[in-house]
Write the structure tokens for this entry.
Amino acid sequence: MNVNLQHWRLDVDTQGIATATLDKAGESANSLSAEVLREFSSLLDQLDVYPPKGLIIRSGKAAGFIAGADISEFSQLDTAEKGRALVERGWKLFNRLEAVKYPTLALVRGHCLGGGLELALACRYLLAVDESGTKMGLPEVMLGIFPGWGGMLRLPQRVGPAAALDMMLTGKTLDAKRAKKMGLADDCVPPRVMEMAARQLVVSGQPRRPLPFMQKLMNGPLKSVVANGARKQVARKARPQHYPAPYAIIDLWQKHDGNALAAPEVVDRIIASPTARNLVRVFGLQERLKGFGKDSDFKARRVHVIGAGVMGGDIAAWCALRGMTVTLQDQALERIAPALKRAQSLFVKKLRDPLKARAAFDRLIPDPQGDGVPHADVIIEAIFENVEAKHALFRALEPRMKPGAVLATNTSSLKLEDLRTVLHRPERLVGIHFFNPVSMMPLVEVVEAEGADPTVVQAACAFVKQIDKLPLPVKSAPGFLVNAVLAPYMLAAMRAVDEGISPETVDEAMLAFGMPMGPIELIDTVGLDIAMAAGKQLAGGADAPKCLLQRVKKNLLGKKSGQGFYAWSEGKPQKGSAGSVPAGLAERLVKPLIDRTERLVAEGIIGDAELADAGVIFGTGFAPFTGGPLNYRKSV
């Protein structure tokens, strides 16, 4: 009974239960291209003729259910008609799926995102498989667009509008257990019983869990209250001129029940916006970074970190969180204790399960003697920035390392060529440079010195990917990419303060430009002493700004000392009002950052302009809606 299908397989068992398996041809993950949706429509035609007892929709991929719509098709939407046609295609098809006479069930294992979740929401039942890879969400907002295939209609009906808007406006995902708890999934089962559970549930006739009365009111008469609250939340994080999509999601839900076709002008505006174009570009850049190291078969199980300060301790905790056995070395146990305490709170916050947090904590082993060195696949040096100290350490480490282990330094300011002179195999030293705070910053620079062994650089990229960070290969040069472009930007910001512009005004100018944090607050967060040291090295002999010198002399070092440019209380800067921002201030402050980025590309420190944009976005938070500093300059 099979029509000629390239991406779908349809099987019907002896009990009359049909299973439609999506296994997109030639791809490692499923996405909903125009072709995949067309085939699904003809599969439904066939089932109209021979209605099954029930239909189970599942994935034939190990990678997950469905990653979403086919992103490559977005870049071809060059007219308003094409944009509307794309929305209409999924909206009509999923309405048709929802209306079929027989019961339907989505068996969700692995990632189920965007259009994939919209398809699952159109089924009568959603069965989630309880394993770590299962993640459900509508992250379209991250691409500057909205869930136009029924997500804005059905998700609020299923989990209530407050939770649904929170998911759609932040792009956050739910695991299987949370999905069941919130009513998104009807049940959550272990992989070994998923087939049996799916077959039982699809023909069970079990009613859906009804929405609580209060949630129904919020979806009806109280809609405007919920919408206004959501707008206030969004306004704290994103300005409508930079990020129009979250505001469009709220409007489409409130005024049109999530039917974007009822507001074609909104569809046209969002799909044609430079923000959507640039965010789709940033998604492509992120995928490109994820590709580094994929050709290496290096896999780390044990990691040894030397130096239990904030940086070293947090790197060790992150690796343990990501499933590795980590030994953390410092001169004495009392030096390691604060790192363990911070790790404990990271595990509790991230894993939200006492048993998993306990297991992660058990994987992080204090190791004052360095007993972990001979067993480690990756050794990361994160001690203070001093060449002699690092030399002594490398001399002691090299003879104890196992063959094939990666030796890495987290230095941010010293040249690898100077550090490796004491090694018998200097070509094996690589830089793996994390940013603070380690748990928040997605980017890690992988630093290649002159004449480095390319297999080691590849292995370092593979390791960075293994711990769910984005590897960016850079050449060894002062400040690499991220710190090298931040230095002239911070310098320009402090020069403006020297001219009498208030720190608040400088910060407001850059927040209005689209930065996640103003440069002066950033300097306070990093520490004025660190900004001073980095500036000496990266400012090319320019005098330090007066406002910085005065504060460092008085030991006002920023957030860590409670006072810098701002007074800090409970981890927040106490700012006065910004006043009016002088015209052209943002452009003036961002110019040195863009100039330096261009120069680093020209000097070959970073591979090309695209990678430079990716590095500056993921390493500094540079306004993603611009598509990165070089893309911004081109567009202006």
Q: What stands out?
A: The chain has 26 helices and 19 strands.
